[in-house]
## 1
Amino acid sequence: MFNIGDRVVYPMHGAGVIEGIEEKDLGGNIEEYYIIKLTMGEMKVMIPVSNVDLVGIREVISEDEVDKVFEVLKGENTKMSSNWNRRYRANMEKIKSGSIFEVAEVVRNLSLRDREKGLSTGERKMLENARQILLSELVLAQNLAEEQAEALLEECFN
């Protein structure tokens, strides 16, 4: 069970802070919901408390784990399929996993591929989405401004 003020990650959407826990009556069925304000943008999401495990909500990474994320970002490019469709599906699975390390791998691989060969529109959109997810967690994990996190991320590829 999470509490108000906890910093959490909602896979595929990014990191945020639990602003409230509310009960909602849906057709006579009362259920508790976490109200999460996402770090990037002005979006708020409501997640049923009973679905937290199913959805994959987890705590934001620790300071030690941040160093590991940067190791992944600076690491070697992972072998990816030359088939666009297979590569896209494999990357989407990594993003859906909710693991910051898998998301960092997608950001690294697509960023390097973009520099070498360029990306399709679909992969460029995927890279942007993965970067936002990654940045949102880094912002909360290190108490940074979005611009600071962006600068740290850019350093990994220069």
Note: The domain at 63-155 is CATH 1.20.58.1290 (Methane Monooxygenase Hydroxylase; Chain G, domain 1).
## 2
Amino acid sequence: MTASEEEPPLDPEAVERSYRFHRARRADKVKRHREKRRASLRFWFVLALIVAVAAVLAARTLGEIERVFGL
């Protein structure tokens, strides 16, 4: 037997497929990280907006109560 007969046949596209697979995994990881960061920013923005609206409503309500009851 010669050396070429002992080696398994190589798939010429296997290396390129492997590169594409791992590049896609890295791209997905970066995309998930970016989306997670944006979701966190959206959460804090909406929370701050809700707190600000609640503070404005509370101030307006207290002002109206003082006006109605003459406090």
Note: The chain has one domain: 14-69.
## 3
Amino acid sequence: MLKINHIWFDFSDTIAFLKKERHDRLRYETYSLVTGKPANFELATEYEELYRKYNHSNAAVFRSIGQPADFWSEQVNDVDPKELYELSDPEVPKILKTISQSIPISIFSNIELEKILLSLTIDTKWFTNILSAKMVKEPKPALDGFYKMVELSAIPAQQILYIGDDVGKDVQPAKKVGIQAAIIWKESDEADHSFKNFQDILNVLQ
């Protein structure tokens, strides 16, 4: 395996888990508002079909119906972060800080994160870059942001490790641009690394 000189993280369901009921309500109510359709079971079913089509990316769903790349991010940031997110592991802040003391770490998400990270006691200073949807033309799983990651890292793509929770939205696009890809909380033959928990990420530093 090639040496890793920069680690990039996905956010949702990687660093923090979504509080599903509240998050789903936001997704469906926002979709109802944009489309003018009633917020009912049929609308939820329609939305979930789009969500699957666009590789589990809410930002890409709203982009597909004509909204700006950062539209979903704006909806999320209008809600108290503690209503929507909780740390995926209580040790996440400690582990991120430890990794950042060894090699650069950055984060790439389809949402704006500064306020959310602070609410989770994660110091934004630990990250070399915080890349969001408004900084790229198209949100994940489009390749725009992954190419931007390589540009911002200023090292060859193969020396970058990107860690996410989804094969279609995270692993596959990362590998398409030559970045090493890892999946967390599960295993995948498509990933270069599979981490059962956040602590396992420290093993790549050894």
Note: The CA atoms of residues 97 and 125 lie 9 Å apart.
